[in-house]
Amino acid sequence: MVAGRFTLSYLFMSGAIGQGYATVSTDAGVSTDPSGYAEWVYLSPGNMNVYAMQNFGSVAINDQAIIAKSVIESFYGRPPKYSYWSGCSEGGRQALMLAQRYPTACEINAITEAVIASCDEEDGIADGLIVDPDACEFDPFSMVGKTFNCSDTGVEIQISHPAAMVANVTWSGPISANGKQIWYGMEKGTLLAGSDGYAAGIASIECSSNGNCTGQTGNSGAGWLQSTVLKDPSFNLTDLTLEGYSWLMHLSEVE
């Protein structure tokens, strides 16, 4: 993948194509002029186009990866084994955003395995269970930067800060925008991502055959909020803000 659509981008793309790589680039739906922010960054004078900024910063880059890998798999009959990023200046910042904002199920599962390994034997028995989760003082952020082999892809990856954050907030439980505890968290050692064959993890991430992963909403909780609280089964819950989630939980209590 190459960042941007201008002279340098096309130069980088031609080199990759010449070496036999499937190559893609995007302008994130904004100006192809690297310095042309004024053309798209405002909805009106002084009023920032937040959605365009989000697309430019990371969303469009992730979409690009998903679409490109899908096309590659359709054309070649198999997903790409490796993916590379080429970018400078703004492209470098976009690459960091892409890596930081889209943790994989492998990362979250690795953190779960680590907390079990850390606190399993506190009861004197190594049985894969944490008997007293409240006494387990494992810090998920201690895993950030550590490398492990992802069994889903066979590739060495590092645990990111967002993955540790997912584990931490899931264990801590939801907190409202004003700092109030909304509900209890999940116990440390609980399945967070993937499925055990019966139930999906509370922080489940669904990964396609081409390696792209997206967060999934829980069926029971989502169904309650959509059908009972909002009276709208088609309501999109994937882009809720913290304020919106707090409001929904309040409505749920009222219901």
User: Which strands sit side by side, in order, in the main sheet?
Assistant: 1-2
End-to-end distance: 48 Å
What kind of sheet is the major sheet?
2 strands, parallel
Q: What best-fitting shape do the alpha-carbon axes yield?
A: globular
Keywords: Calcium, Disulfide bond, Hydrolase, Metal-binding, Serine esterase, Signal
GO molecular function: feruloyl esterase activity; metal ion binding
Pfam family, one: Tannase
Signal peptide: 1-22
Secondary-structure map with pairings?
Blueprint: E1 2-3, H1 7-18, E2 25-26, E3 42-44, E4 47-48, H2 50-76, H3 90-101, H4 105-119, E5 147-150, E6 155-158, H5 161-172, E7 205-207, E8 213-215, H6 219-229, H7 242-254
Parallel strand pairs: 1-2
Antiparallel strand pairs: 3-4, 5-6, 7-8
In short:
The protein is mainly α and 255 residues long.
Explain what this protein looks like in three dimensions.
This protein is mostly helical and 255 residues long. The chain is built from 7 helices and 8 strands; from the N terminus they run βαβββαααββαββαα. A hairpin with a 5-residue loop joins strand 7 and strand 8. The chain is globular and about 60 Å long. It starts with a strand and ends with a helix. The model has no long low-confidence stretch (mean pLDDT 79).
Salient structural properties:
single chain; 255 residues; mainly alpha; two-stranded parallel sheet; two-stranded antiparallel ribbon; 7 helices; 8 strands; 9% strand
